[in-house]
Amino acid sequence: MRLRQMRRQNKRNDRQKKQTRSQNQRRERSITEKTVKAKKKKKSEQTECIIPQKKETEDEKSTKAPKKRKKKKTITDVLATSEPKPGCPADLQNLITQHFSDKRSVIEQEELKLQDSCFLSSNDLTHSLSSYLKQVCPKWAKIQKQHTQKTSVVLLIVCSSALRTIELIKQLTTFKGEAKAVKLFAKHIKIEEQVKLLQKGVTHIGVGTPGRISALIEKEGLNLQALRYLVLDWNWRDQKLRRMVDIPEIKQDLMKLLENGILSGCKDDKVKIGLF
């Protein structure tokens, strides 16, 4: 019995010794870690250099002018300082060249160049639509009588919007005579309805947006066989003072329209382009 008690006592003593050892080791570790951290802190405090910042006085703040951002010049700003210039054939030619510069080879770009004979005289900003058309189409009465082909027009007037289309058709009254004019825009009018309208009877004048006119040509609802005059509503500006070619999507549609048979018609001396 005594031996057993002695053994138990020894085991307890051994356990206590181990516990005290582990506790001592933990204490030593924590002490060393603390000392290392303290040394690092001291070093960082020594290396840090604090530069005192100058406090601005109220007088200095008031004298400093606030930084102004440079505003981009808008079309309105440009027109405020200079009078709008009427469009000319060179403007259209430059637009075509710029648009196709990265889409066509050098040889193909040469083919896109139009001769002066392809253009009608341009509007000098003094004409109404009727007076301009009377000037560039002096034999209109004879031309309209000779036109008997359906799904084609003799005169195409291209503008930027549906509202402008309606406005231009109203301005045609003194010029068109007995000729029939049709609206060619996408707003509230389905393309199928316009195709049926063009197939129904003879139409002499088409007025509309380049996007819808291109779509009609692609759907074969409108052909260019009888086309003789293409008039671009070049100089008119909207509420934001943008011309038709200043609106990216309209410009894109216009280039597509020119590519859809207009330029080739000009090359063959069948179509003349006028800038109104």
TrEMBL record:
Q: Matching Gene3D superfamilies, A to Z?
A: P-loop containing nucleotide triphosphate hydrolases (3.40.50.300)
Q: Which gene encodes it?
A: cmss1
- Comp. bias intervals (Basic and acidic residues): 25-36, 53-63
Q: Which domain of life is it from?
A: Eukaryota
| UniProt-recorded name of the protein | LOW QUALITY PROTEIN: protein CMSS1
InterPro entries found in the cross-reference section? Cms1, P-loop_NTPase
Identify one Gene Ontology CC term for this UniProt entry.
Answer: nucleus
Pfam families attached to this UniProt entry: CMS1
Which stretches does the entry tag as region Disordered? 1-83
Residue ranges annotated as compositionally biased, kind Basic residues, are: 1-10, 64-73
Please tell me the species this chain comes from: Lates calcarifer
